[in-house]
């Protein structure tokens, strides 16, 4: 459970620091617009995304079990966070995040890191695609600049409301959103080492700001972003409220644990390394505790940002610390500039994020899986979209474990008639 940073610093030198410095700054430029967009999509103040990226991102790199893991708010949490805020208010989310941090700490100290292998892969794939669909649907209002007073949380109700508002399409907003998507894709292909996300969002936001197009920005909708971190405060831990929020806390802890360990395994393959799963869980617990103390969002290891860190040359957890400190510096110095980011640009960014989350390159592979795996994936996907993430995960894991036992030819129980 020893943090990786203690191992890597033993032979640390100037060459490694320069590589980590460049990678950390590069990842920060990717994480900055994503953190703002994820917070907004979650129904929270955009500044909460920056707070989470700074506090949780720093703690995940400081205490984690991976050399190159980058942590912060991720798209996987949008659905859960939005529901918790809708049902229990933002203070309820802070309490649930605090409790999730405690659950992850306990899991790490109990060495539960290897239990991820018990979660069937079709369940993970199913709820990931389901979350991606919900995220994409939630961004259509801002992408097209639709005039809707209140967008329903329920999926089909949301689609119906969007369709009814189709005559209110804001053409400039739609063009900004589409142009942002095009620029991100083009820059990724033409110059993959550049921070294409921040460049694309900056260019399209400038197109909005300079001529004063009638398009919503972060500043016009939410006001000025703060130029400092809030003071830490322990959330109000009322016993009744904690019991009410316990299911949400378990879902947050489950998602944080699963996504961080998946991200660490992907990173291992990219760098031919080996992460420490229990240290990673402890880091996720500390990060979520820390984020909640500063009023932030749930956090976990981010696969896309971790891969960006590796491609940019990150070698040790110092790159993650640089990433967090860079976002803090931007918050302290350039927060007003971030307020000019156009809402359709952030919507386009999140739609592309949702597309990447769904891993379309793997869809043909899913179609070749066993019928039981395809059924499990589709069931989890549908339950995620139309019911609830808690239900989807619970049902998917139970059915998946039953299928796994059957494949291993476990003999049926020897039922005996009751003695009556």
TrEMBL record:
Its GO biological process annotations read: transmembrane transport
Membrane-related topology note: Multi-pass membrane protein
- An example of a Pfam family matching this protein is Sulfate_transp
Question: Which is one Gene Ontology cellular component term of this protein?
Answer: membrane
The record's InterPro entries line, in alphabetical order, gives:
SLC26A/SulP_dom (IPR011547), SLC26A/SulP_fam (IPR001902)
All copies of domain SLC26A/SulP transporter, residue ranges: 17-378
Q: What is its main location?
A: membrane
What keywords were assigned to this record? Membrane, Transmembrane, Transmembrane helix
Coiled-coil positions are: none
Q: Which residues cross the membrane?
A: 21-41, 92-110, 122-140, 169-187, 194-213, 245-267, 327-355, 375-403
Q: Where in the cell is it found?
A: Membrane
**Does the keyword Membrane belong to this entry?**
yes
Which protein is depicted?
Sulfate permease
Species: Paracoccus methylarcula
Question: What lineage, starting at the top, does this entry show?
Answer: Bacteria, Pseudomonadati, Pseudomonadota, Alphaproteobacteria, Rhodobacterales
